[in-house]
Write a structure and sequence with these properties.
four-stranded antiparallel beta sheet; two-stranded antiparallel sheet; mainly alpha
Length: 820
């Protein structure tokens, strides 16, 4: 501005005559003189005192190295999405903390296996696609893991009512077909119970046709068991046993009879279901496939325990006609429900010999088994198929369908936790590339190919190294403070803060170049004194502003945000300390090197001959860029040409207008696939899930209630049913999922002590007579069993006749006239 608005000598004389008090230079701020003197004295001391600049040049790097060495072994990645994104002051966070403090952790975890057509638009409701899904499910069921030298399979970790006897809980669309039996392998499991006590068993007439040889239907017989045992066919190997004397019909008869006598279901649940491929290899017609899925589908229990398969959970992007008949489904899904570490530990301690024998393991090892099984199941789901991103895949791996899998983070880490870990650690490689690139660019701007004396590459690289060390030291310090490093910290701060530190380095070193070039070869102490008086305040002020901005950011109640701000505040402080102590000391050494005419390549060698008539800094890349690009081209065009000024103004206004109009169009929030790396099965699952199954589970927790109070128990049911009735909740979950209702059913003699419930567990009254539940009036108008609730409908009970069907009157009479 002074060059543009400088007055002529005559104007200056006239103005000085009118205002004699303003003869002092206008650019001099008298109030800043003490600060400038201090900064100048500091710079001069660095330039003249070898011991001081040596100490400051070593102090920051040594301190940073110590922090890095001490802190990096304590380095931890924040891989919990809950810790990252749940606001600390939210009611959800308070509920979660209360639940954890009271020992109510997660008890189950899920693995979701999704299948869709490879072309992205064909239906999954045809026999060929579902048979490929069947193959994938069979492969998943065969998954094993090895932990600490011991082998484990799915039966060791899956949720089931009777471990190693009844099948795992796996809702799948294959339960609509006969092939569901091969997937869940319920036949040898149920048979295993019967063969442990080979008593006579009765084969009902008409159950299996033809009737096995030497067997009379309707009469007890041990012939089937004896034949199997003589042929060496154990329960676990029944279906694969090569018995010549035993026909398949005999095997089916044993299995069906064993299930029948167990009281679980009236008959084999899969025998009457359509087969996707018959014995001759013919495929089920598409119309019949859609009809089977459109009808009622039950798992191995025939619906007596788990009810009908929830179609919204296993059939995605479905299109049905007015009568509910499925015409299209873009995807299908299977849900593997796994248990928790304590349950795995307890289960293995009583594992039967047929399943591998009992094994005592610690809770820690049980959690390792569960986590390893999650990862292995995901790998099994995506095995033997080519990825959609492969340009020239093996034709044998180009399947009709694509399978992807996801495991939640309940109980033990799952897919998203592993994704956070991988993506956080992957930033390290990019970080190194960034540091190398910044160093190379800094060296490029300070190299002088014409003179090794004027070149300052080593100084530039040292400045970049200081910025990198300062940032890494901040990571070490926060690690010592037990602050976990998260994906935001590792993907944002290395690139932002090291850049800020290098900016300060450029400001200081470029100021030195300008001052030295303008001073005509002044002593290093004088040059550095003038430079520090000029730049110390601006560098400190920008660092302070950055510190304040990150302090404001730290006010967030998202731990992923405020912990990132903490790291940034520490890093900004360390960067400032490095740039005002170690960097000026290194600059002082370099100024002395140049004053002694020593080469940068060998600064300890004898002085080089002076470059005749050349300015010491004239040929450096930074000065040349400033001289010819910034000042020679850009500033000149902007200050002299109206068209340039108009162009800049129009472009600025256009950008502001565009931002103002389009800012509301910016998408808010993050999708799961935003975290997944491109061309991975994790990304495939997240994208497919968002398109075909935009559903996520919710859970309901109750606090410090009087759980023994019947009104509290009914109130819990009322709250549950209110939430289940919301339009945002899909497929109205059963009221029996409320634990007090389940406990009441378990403890009622007419519910928990009769088939099929008593085939799964011992009911309450049989354990202790005090564990007995009684009926209570439906005072909150809860759903009856016919409507998916748990309440009984006594309106037509004869016992209520004397009270005109009034259950409340009967209840009042019973509780006022009954004995203690």
């Amino acid at each position: 501005c002074t060059s543009i608005w400088q007055r002529s000598p005559r104007q200056q004389t006239r103005r000085s005559q009118r205002s004699p008090r303003r003869q002092a230079p206008r650019h001099l701020d008298v109030q800043s003189l003490p600060k400038m003197v201090i900064a100048s004295s500091y710079g001069q001391a660095l330039g003249s005192n070898l011991q001081l600049r040596s100490a400051l040049a070593l102090l920051a790097p040594i301190t940073f190295t110590i922090l890095i060495g001490a802190g990096f072994p304590q380095f931890e990645i924040q891989d919990s999405v809950a810790e990252l994104w749940i606001p600390d002051k939210s009611s959800y966070a308070a509920d979660r903390e209360y639940r954890i403090e009271n020992g109510a952790g997660e008890v189950t975890t899920n693995l979701l296996v999704l299948a869709r057509a490879r072309d992205g638009h064909s239906t999954m409701l045809d026999a060929r696609s579902l048979l490929e899904h069947d193959d994938a499910m069979t492969r998943i069921y065969a998954t094993t893991v090895n932990v600490r030298g011991n082998a484990y399979d799915l039966s060791d970790v899956c949720l089931t009512a009777r471990p190693y006897l009844l099948p795992c809980v796996v809702p799948t669309v294959l339960d609509c077909f006969y092939e569901g039996s091969s997937v869940v392998e319920w036949q040898p499991l149920v048979l295993g119970l019967a063969m442990t006590t080979p008593d006579a068993i009765t084969i009902p007439c008409g159950l299996v046709s033809p009737t096995p040889p030497n067997i009379t239907c309707g009469e007890p017989s041990t012939a089937l068991y004896e034949t199997l045992l003589l042929q060496g066919c154990t329960a676990a190997a029944l279906l694969s046993c090569n018995s010549t004397a035993m026909e398949q019909s005999a095997k089916d008869a044993i299995v069906s009879a064993a299930i029948l006598e167990s009281g679980l279901i009236p008959a084999s649940p899969y025998d009457s279901k359509p087969k996707l491929r018959d014995g001759d290899g013919a495929l089920l017609p598409d119309e019949e496939v859609r009809a089977a899925v459109s009808g009622e589908c039950f798992a191995w229990d025939g619906g007596s325990i788990y009810g009908e398969v929830n179609k919204e959970l296993v059939v995605g992007s479905a299109k049905a006609n007015a009568s509910g008949f499925y015409e299209y489904a873009g995807a299908v899904q299977a849900v593997f429900v796994l248990t928790n570490g304590a349950a795995v530990q307890q289960r293995l301690s009583a594992r039967p010999e047929t399943a591998g024998g009992a094994r005592d393991i610690s809770l820690e090892e049980a959690m390792e088994v569960l986590e390893a099984m999650k990862a292995a199941l995901e790998e099994s789901a995506v095995a033997e198929q080519a990825g959609p991103w492969e340009s020239d895949p093996d034709p044998a791996r180009v399947t009709r369908t694509l399978h992807s899998a996801f495991s939640d983070d309940a109980v033990v880490p799952g897919t998203f936790t592993q994704t956070l870990r991988d993506e956080t650690y992957s930033s390290i490689n990019i970080m190194i590339v960034n540091f190398v690139l910044v160093g190379a660019l800094a060296a490029l701007f300070f190299v002088d190919c014409a003179s090794a004396v004027r070149s300052r590459v080593l100084l530039a690289l040292s400045g970049v190294a200081l910025a990198v060390l300062a940032f890494l030291a901040s990571l070490g310090l926060v690690a010592l403070a037990s602050i976990k490093l998260n994906i935001i910290t590792m993907w944002v701060l290395p690139f932002l803060l090291v850049g800020i530190g290098v900016d300060d380095m450029f400001i200081i070193t470029y100021a030195v170049e300008r001052r030295r070039g303008a001073s005509g070869g002044a002593a290093p102490s004088l040059v550095l004194g003038e430079v520090m008086a000029e730049v110390l305040a601006p560098v400190s002020l920008t660092s302070l502003i950055n510190l304040i901005m990150f302090a404001v950011m730290a006010r967030s109640d998202l731990s992923g945000v405020y912990e990132t701000a903490y790291v940034a505040m520490v890093a900004v402080t360390m960067l400032w300390a490095a740039m005002v102590t170690a960097l000026p000391a290194l600059i002082a050494f370099d100024l002395h090197r140049q004053a002694s005419r020593r080469s940068e390549l060998c600064p300890c060698s004898a002085g080089a001959p002076a470059d005749a008539g050349a300015d010491l800094s004239e040929r450096s890349a930074s000065v040349l860029a400033d001289k010819y690009c910034f000042r020679g081209a850009y500033l000149r065009a902007l200050s002299k040409w109206r068209a340039s000024q108009l162009l800049v103004g129009v472009l600025s206004a256009a950008l502001l207008a565009t931002c103002a109009v389009k800012v509301n169009d910016l998408p808010l929030g993050l999708e799961l696939n935003d975290f997944a790396r491109s061309d991975t099965w994790v990304e495939v699952y997240f994208v497919d899930r968002s398109e075909h199954f935009p559903l996520w589970p919710i859970s309901m927790n109750f606090g410090a209630l009087e759980y023994e109070n019947p009104l509290s128990q009914l109130g819990m049911l009322r709250t549950w049913e209110n939430v289940a009735a919301l339009p945002e909740v899909s497929a109205s979950p059963r009221s029996g999922l409320v634990w007090t209702a389940s406990m009441a059913a378990w403890a009622h003699p007419a519910i928990g002590c009769v088939p099929p419930a008593n085939a799964l567990y011992t009911c309450g009254p049989e354990i202790d007579p005090d564990c007995t539940a009684t009926f209570y009036p439906n005072v909150y108008g809860l759903k009856t069993r016919a409507d998916g609730g748990v309440c009984a409908d006594f309106a037509s009970e004869p016992a209520l006749a004397q009270w005109d069907g009034d259950l409340y009157a009967m209840f009042a009479f019973a509780h006022t006239n009954m004995s203690p």
